[in-house]
Specification:
- By secondary structure, this protein is an alpha+beta fold.
- The chain has helices at about 5-20, 25-35, 45-80, 185-190, 240, 320, 355-365, and strands at about 85-100, 100-110, 120, 125-130, 140, 160-170, 175-180, 195-200, 210-215, 230, 245, 250-260, 265-270, 275, 285-290, 290-295, 300-305, 310-315, 325-330, 350, 410, 425, 430, 435-440, 450, 475-480, 485-490, 500-505.
- Helix content is about 20%, strand content about 30%.
- Strands 9, 10, 12, 14, 15, 17 and 20 form a seven-stranded mixed beta sheet that branches. Strands 11-19-18-13-16 form a five-stranded mixed beta sheet. A four-stranded mixed beta sheet has the order 2-1-4-6, with no helix packed on it.
- The chain starts with 5 loop residues before the first helix and ends with a strand.
Length: about 500
């Protein structure tokens, strides 16, 4: 190698030393070069060119390391800012009110519909310990970016089981979580859902923040595409009786999460055009709108402001507003002594999520031992057969050899899941037209009584205890038979459980 490049080689070697501020070693290196007579043996022009080249290399390298150090410092700063959030979600059964004097069975995360609002900043680690205290399998499925093992679909958590989800909160926006066990529509409508809000790394402009989680419930049939109740945060018209407070000229930021299962409806806020961040993702450019269509499983971040005091309604246009999905903002002028960040959001954000959660608990009055409302008890018992004899595919028998004739009560036996056609006792039975049969669950797990045979289109058409809340241990289900014929039934949860009822004229 030409000695003319020796200073460059030493200069390159010195780059690492500059990074660690080892200037004394750099000095000794060039002394060593002189002692070895590496510099004097070069021609003057070579010395000048080599030194210039070395200087350029050193300057560029030093600048590059400055940038690299700055980037590294930024990464380290972000890593040091990232936090770990640990939450515990417990799937548990209870009863609660979804409207005044309407108490229903519910499957919940932590005892309310919706479950608690989980929050994190983008890049934070989120650990969720899930405990299933119900007799059915459940999961927690998060929207957002994460590996398959954290997706809450295939890793079903059995009764009394646990699972720990470990994800990085991303992207920033209004996300959600819900159970993803089939039938998903039923598990979600029964109450297993909630909001997951991920804040951007850079602080947002000040605002008063609310979370609205849209949900549905049908006391007669949870698979009904047009349910009886549409709710914000688990209570129909809860924000009509308890309006959301706001101040004039204050930005109101609403994280809207739609976990209803109905077709898309337009979210509308009165008295203002407002901004919407599509799909509730902060990186999406906002639009100025008058209504925002929100499909099932989607979200939006809405920002509104009013210069005038008054009551400003918000609702989903169409059927939902007639069945509970309506509330309003009570906008008032702030007082002269209003405290920023407490009474009004001018330079400091006010988060209203805890206030909303406490209101939900107060309205729902969860109680696992309370009696259901009269309109929701044995909901399917008012669903009678409509049609001709033999509509189930089974023709009536003119001769019935049945020792259980006249029996109107059937027990679901202990250990029924493994007993096949011995699960229901007595089985089969025969009754008169107009009689009501009551099934009493003596087992330690939940079951259904569903008309027809498993895995057929017509199953559950005539009667089905599983459409609303299944039959819990020690609970009953009743159905009145209005047409003669032979009717088979089974358990949706344990399809090998089968029974038959003969209805005589």
């Amino acid at each position: 190698m030409s000695s003319g490049f020796t200073p460059c080689i030493y200069g390159i070697y010195a780059i690492d030393l500059i990074q660690y501020n080892k200037f004394d070693i750099i000095y000794m290196t060039f002394v060593r070069m002189y002692v070895r007579r590496e510099i004097p043996t070069m021609s003057p022009s070579t010395i000048i060119l080599s030194i210039m080249l070395a200087v350029i290399v050193l300057v560029v390298a030093a600048t590059g390391f400055d940038n690299a150090n700055a980037m590294g410092a930024k990464v380290q700063a972000l890593e040091s800012q990232a936090k770990t959030h640990e939450y515990t979600l417990v799937a548990e059964e209870t009863t609660l009110e979804i409207a005044p004097n309407v108490r229903v069975d519910a499957w919940t995360y932590n005892g309310t519909i919706p479950g608690p609002t989980l929050t994190a900043t983008e890049g934070d680690r989120v650990i969720v310990h899930f405990i299933n205290k119900t007799p059915l399998p459940h999961t927690v499925h998060f929207h957002g970016d994460h590996p398959s093992t954290q997706d809450g679909v295939f890793e079903q958590v059995m009764p009394n089981g646990t699972y720990t989800y470990d994800i990085i909160a991303t992207p920033a926006g209004a996300l959600m979580y819900h159970c993803h066990v089939s039938p998903v529509m039923q598990h979600v409508r029964m109450g297993l859902y909630g909001a997951f809000i991920v804040y951007p790394k850079n602080p947002l402009p000040p605002a008063r923040e609310y979370v609205l989680v849209s949900g549905e419930y049908d006391t007669q049939n949870q698979l009904n595409p047009i349910p009886e109740y549409y709710m914000f945060n688990g209570y129909a018209e809860g924000y009509m009786k308890n309006p959301l407070p706001a101040r004039t000229n204050e930005t109101i930021r609403i994280y809207v999460v739609n976990l209803g299962l109905s077709p898309s409806y337009g979210m509308h806020i009165h008295g203002t055009l407002f901004r919407a961040f599509p799909s509730g993702i902060w990186q999406n450019p906002p639009l100025k709108i008058q209504s925002w269509e929100l499909a099932s499983g989607n979200a939006a971040i809405l920002e509104a402001k009013w210069p005038w005091p008054g009551n400003y309604v918000f609702h989903f246009h169409g059927i939902p507003e007639e069945r509970g999905a309506m509330g309003y903002f009570n906008v008032t002028n702030s007082t002269t002594n209003a405290i920023d960040g407490k009474d009004i959001a001018i330079t400091k954000t006010i988060n209203m999520v805890d206030w909303q959660a406490n209101l939900t608990k107060t309205l729902q009055k969860a109680d696992p031992n309370a009696s259901l409302s009269a309109s929701t008890m044995n909901a399917s018992s008012n669903v009678h057969e409509h049609g001709v004899t033999g509509e189930t595919g089974y023709e009536p028998s003119s001769k019935v050899s049945n020792p259980n004739r006249g029996t109107n009560e059937v027990l679901i036996k202990k250990g029924a899941a493994t007993l096949g056609n011995q699960s229901y006792s007595p089985n089969p039975i025969s009754i008169k037209v107009g009689s009501t049969v009551k099934w009493n669950n003596m087992d330690s797990t939940m079951h259904t009584v569903t008309s027809g045979v498993p895995n057929t289109v017509s199953s559950g058409e005539l009667f089905d205890s599983g459409l609303t809340a299944l039959i819990m241990p020690s609970k009953t289900y009743s159905h009145k038979f209005m047409n003669p014929g032979e009717f088979t039934y089974f358990c949706r949860v344990h399809p090998t459980m089968v029974g038959k009822i003969t209805v005589l004229p």
